[in-house]
């Protein structure tokens, strides 16, 4: 999640991406995303196993910012909000 291209980044894990992204968009959850106005879903990865997703989240949170931006640019070079593409 972000607030604008090259803006503040948030990484999280959920079992229901569409619901969780909607909650962030609507500022329903107090915390980091609400405080910084992070409402745009610009990158995601899907995993069958929640343990794999949690491990990936943990790893990515320790990455340098430029690595995270590189992933976003590979998937979404225009930093479009991907929320509408979720089924």
From TrEMBL:
Tell me the Pfam families matching this sequence: GIY-YIG
Give the transmembrane ranges.
none
* Entry keywords, A to Z: Endonuclease, Hydrolase, Nuclease
What PROSITE patterns has UniProt attached to this entry? Answer: GIY_YIG
Which GO terms of the molecular function aspect are on file?
Answer: endonuclease activity
Source taxon at top rank: Bacteria
Q: Which residues form the GIY-YIG domain?
A: 1-70
Q: Which family does it belong to?
A: Belongs to the UPF0213 family.
Protein name as annotated: Putative endonuclease
Write down the species. Answer: Chelatococcus caeni
- What is the organism lineage in this UniProt record? Bacteria, Pseudomonadati, Pseudomonadota, Alphaproteobacteria, Hyphomicrobiales
């Amino acid at each position: 999640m972000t607030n604008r291209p090259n803006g503040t980044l948030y990484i999280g894990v959920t079992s229901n991406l569409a619901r969780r992204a909607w909650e962030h968009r609507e500022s329903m959850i107090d915390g980091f995303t609400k405080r910084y106005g992070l409402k745009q879903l610009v990158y995601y990865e899907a995993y069958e196993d929640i343990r794999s997703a949690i491990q990936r989240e943990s790893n990515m949170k320790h990455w340098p910012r430029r690595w995270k931006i590189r992933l976003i640019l590979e998937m979404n070079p225009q930093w479009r909000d991907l929320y509408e593409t979720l089924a």
